[in-house]
Each structure stands twice: as structure tokens, then as C-alpha cells.
């Protein structure tokens, strides 16, 4: 039985997977590969206590920009030695409480002050 010209089973024709040859990589696959790479950049986060929350000995930390804000909350809980059930309220610039799925880089780009992302924390709801 004759093979159709250009079919993958045609003798002498080799298949290449995306990313192997370089010339056949579509822009969509390149974009996906770029998106999958971790952003190595760091963001300086400054923690400030509000109300009766305990003050941290060190309040400046470098956190990976690609992390979600949930990672910042977990880090803060660990540093303060708080359990998962203990109340913790976090705010950006004393203004709003970010969603846990916001990325640190987006918050930094939008709300950085003097090169820092200021995260206020409290044991009780302080605003909104």
C-alpha cells in the first residue's frame, strides 16, 4: 500500500518533538515553556505589627516573587509560632487584605513603597 506524501511513516522522514529542532517550535509552546520557568527574582517584604500583635525581631525578608501570598501568610505564621487555628489578619499598606492566590510579584508591582512590600499583620480584624 502506498504512503501519502509527507506522512510521518514515509521513509527518510523523521518526526521532531516541539523544542528539539528549534525551527518547528510554535510561539505558543515557547510561551508555555517561558511561563513554566520559575522567576528567580526576590522581593523585600517588610512586616509590621498592628494592634496587639507581637512584634517580630527581624521584619525585613526576601521572598521569591513568584510565590503566592498564601506562602507569605504561612511564613508569617511559622515565624510567629502561631497555629493554623490562631487568628491572623494581613493587610497591604494598611489598606486592604490581599487574596491568598495573589502573587507576591503582582502585589509588589502595584503596591511597593520605597522598594518594599509592606505587610501589616494583626490578631484581630483591623480594617474592612
Describe the structure.
The chain is 23% helix and 18% strand. The protein has three helices and four strands. By secondary structure, the chain is of the alpha+beta class. The protein has helices spanning 27-36, 69-80, 104-111; strands at 42-49, 60-64, 89-92, 117-122. It has a four-stranded mixed β-sheet.
Keywords:
single chain, 128 residues, alpha+beta, four-stranded mixed beta sheet, 3 helices, 4 strands, 23% helix
Low-confidence stretches: 13-19
> What value does the Rg take, in angstroms?
24 Å
The side-by-side strand order for the widest beta sheet comes to 2-1-4-3
Main beta-sheet annotation: 4 strands, mixed
Shape: elongated
Number of helices: 3
End-to-end gap: 74 Å
What is the count of β-strands?
4
As a percent range, the share of strand residues is 15-25%
Can I get a quick summary?
By secondary structure, the chain is an alpha+beta fold.
Reconstruct the topology from this structure.
Blueprint: H1 27-36, E1 42-49, E2 60-64, H2 69-80, E3 89-92, H3 104-111, E4 117-122
Parallel strand pairs: 1-4
Antiparallel strand pairs: 1-2, 3-4
